[in-house]
Amino acid sequence: MAITVNGAPLELAPGSLAAILEALDYGDAIVATALNGDFVPAEERADTQVRDGDRVEILAPMQGG
Hints:
Pfam families: ThiS (PF02597). This protein is mainly β. The chain is built from 1 helix and 7 strands, in the order βββαββββ.
């Protein structure tokens, strides 16, 4: 399927948001996720299906001062 991840087009096998994160080597990393502009909590990623044309945003925490 064709999706957009952080603004970049990608071709990946259909699956859950958790599976997409695993395929992109995020594994158990602490990140925030959104699907088509809607926040998806970590506990809902396995049940959230990503479909052709969807937009996924993955944000890692940043430290600063």
